Amino acid sequence: MPDHETLHRVASTFHKNFNAGRFDDNGPLVAEEISVDSNTVRFTGRSRFLERIRRFDGPFPGMQLRDRMILIDGMKAGVHYIMQGEHGGQFGDLSPTGRKVEIRGAEIFTFNDEAQMADLVTVNELDRLKAQVSGRESIAEHADITPVDPGSPHVGHGIAQRERVHQLYDSLSQGDHDAAMVLVAEDIVVQPDGERVEGRDGFVGYMHRHRSAFPDMTSEIEDVLVDGNRACVSYHRRGTHRGDLTTLDGSVVAASGRTFSFRTVDFMRFNRQGLVDELISVSNGDEVVAQLTD
Predict the structure, then answer these.
(1) Would 108 disulfide with which of 1, 121, 235, 262, CB 3.0-4.6 Å?
(2) CA 163/CA 275 separation, integer angstroms
(3) Which GO terms describe its biological process (predicted)?
(4) Same domain, 170 and 283
(5) E strand or H helix at 44
(6) Quick one: average pLDDT of 274-287?
């Protein structure tokens, strides 16, 4: 059975090979019949996987995947990374613009006994990527990305962290924001959808905006990984569009009555009191808009 250090090394090597353009070197890191769900595109097989990871090299030659954190829990890894590059090739119907792009990404790997990736889930902020390429959002300079050590679990909070994750998302699904408030720190920093909100009031205000558009929205947890004082949570948001939704570009999608479902991956940190004081959310808003308008 591969140990924590081995799985961490494999997970970090994946992006190092990508950044160096050594895409084929990632072949031995994955199982022959790897199962992939990449931004809702689902397929199996190593050869298709290698084709898939090359897709950004044309429109964004030399794109870099900067790991911010790698969390290992059992036979799984949760990776939060930043994609940085420039629009140097054809992207959809857009000719090269030279514009800088920088979006967040999340991956969850499940390893087999040979320390190969047997299952991969990927979520990227593709809505922000399109906004940056089209000029609706501007990236002046790429940020410096410093890897974060998950640290050691605070005394008495190792097991409780997983329980608190479930309590938090259960409370949010029930619309019980008072119950959610006691699980997060007063000075919590939340970074959802390219935004930054601070404090409990900011956190609850952000959730209220979502509830106004989707009053029955629930969060169905798929995976919880805990490593040190951090956690990675993969879950599906589901609900009914009963209120106006303001999108990333400022346009408004009027209530349609349609239902939606999409995956989000959150990365959070716990303070010494066992409260969440940082939450970074990775999702693709285009998935929601497509289900409400197509």
Answers:
(1) 121
(2) 12
(3) polyketide metabolic process
(4) yes
(5) strand 41-44
(6) 92
**pLDDT above 90: residue 141:** yes
- Looking at the predicted structure, is the pLDDT value of residue 170 above 80? yes
User: What's the CATH number where 43 sits?
Assistant: 3.10.450.50
CA atoms within 13 A on the CB side of 168: 27
Domain boundary among 90, 118, 134: 134
For the segment 69-104, what is each residue's pLDDT rounded down to a tens digit?
999 999 999 999 999 999 999 998 989 999 999 999
How do residues 3-13 score in pLDDT, each as one tens digit? 999 999 999 99
Mean pLDDT of 18-39: 97
What does the DSSP 8-state code read for residue 24?
Answer: G
Phi, psi of 81 (to 5 degrees): -140, 165
CA dihedral 254, 255, 256, 257 (to 10 degrees): 180
Domain count, the chain: 2
Break the chain down into helix, strand, coil percent, rounded to 5. 30, 40, 35
Residue 112 belongs to domain spanning: 4-134
Q: Letter for the amino acid at 223?
A: D
CB 162 within 8 A of CB 228: no
**Contact by Cβ (8 Å): 265, 123:** yes
Residues, the chain, total? Answer: 294
pLDDT, residue 63, reads 97
The Cα–Cα gap between 112 and 20 comes to: 26
Give CA 54 to chain center in angstroms.
20
Give a yes or no: residue 86 inside a domain: yes
Cross-strand bridge partners of residue 226: 231
Q: Which residues contact 104 (CB under 8 A, 6 or more apart)?
A: 80, 81, 82, 83, 124, 125, 280, 282
Is residue 77, in this structure, part of any structural domain at all?
Answer: yes
Whole-prediction pTM value?
A: 0.94
